[in-house]
Amino acid sequence: MKTSLTKLSSSFLLLSLSLSVWAKPVAQVTQISGKAFVVTDDGKTTALRLNQHLDERSEIMVSDDASITLNDYYNATYHLTGGSHLKFFNQSVQLKNGKAWIQSMNSKHPLALTTANGYVNFLNGEFITIFDQGTSRSQVLVVNGEVDVSNVLDQDMKYTVPAGSFTVVDPEIENGFPRAPTKIGLQSLNAALAEFKSLPTQIKSTEVHTRSIASVSEVPVKKGEIIYIKSHRLPASVKKYRNKKANSEPATPIPIKIYGTSWKNNQAYSAPRTPASIQVNNPSLPKISDPKLLNDPEFENSLKKQAVKQPKYSKELEKLIEDLKSY
Fold first, then answer.
1. Class of domain 21-67+77-99+106-193
2. Which of 50, 174, 241, 325 is the residue whose CA sits 20 to 30 A from 256?
């Protein structure tokens, strides 16, 4: 019996040694401030050191007022603040509590971050994930690129969150499904970044290099300023014109032949008709004769009588004239 127990214990020891030898490293510590600990898959807890390699299923726990940065082997970087708890898998991580800023330059292998109720699928991008273990609330804020966010139990119902937007996965909101992406304001962004004491450098977009003309030197241009570029070279069209003008010779007379008519220099050419502008016929106006007026004696007498009856001035003016005459 004693021999069998000895063989059994030795076999377990060899099995544990083989598992430790075949454990797959998934990340490495690149920066650490304060105290952080790692819990291995076999339950051992040790303090993290700079440049330490982490095996698969290792759990990272960051103390309060501490921070840590880790790189995985898929060109992704993970920044954790104080009180964060993160577990590493192959091509995925699980945020159990706290806040993680993830920067990924990977464009070939899809990576994932999970919480108790959220699932974030990402490639090349940059985002911040916050998970509150007390309320089971997950929040994803995209800084650069875009990520796909869904519920961990139903990954088909997902939203693509673009840069400058955030979404929330809360069991009390939308039946646990992610909320539609919402633009984030400057104050909310500053509040989300406040816990990161040393802000990670944001991913720089690929710059497009342009090439200028070799013969023209680049001069800084001020607003409202006109810059004249002096050149001793004339346009090709001007050069061509000058060469033609310099090489030109006096033109020689060319004889002109006219066919189909007889031409005599001694006879003057007469037009078949006079232009209309020369002959102007003034129209004759009808003579105006005196009208024949017929006198009507009866009408004239009536007109004279009515003229006498009509006052020459108004009553007020007549009275004023009479008053003036009395003086």
1. mainly beta
2. 241
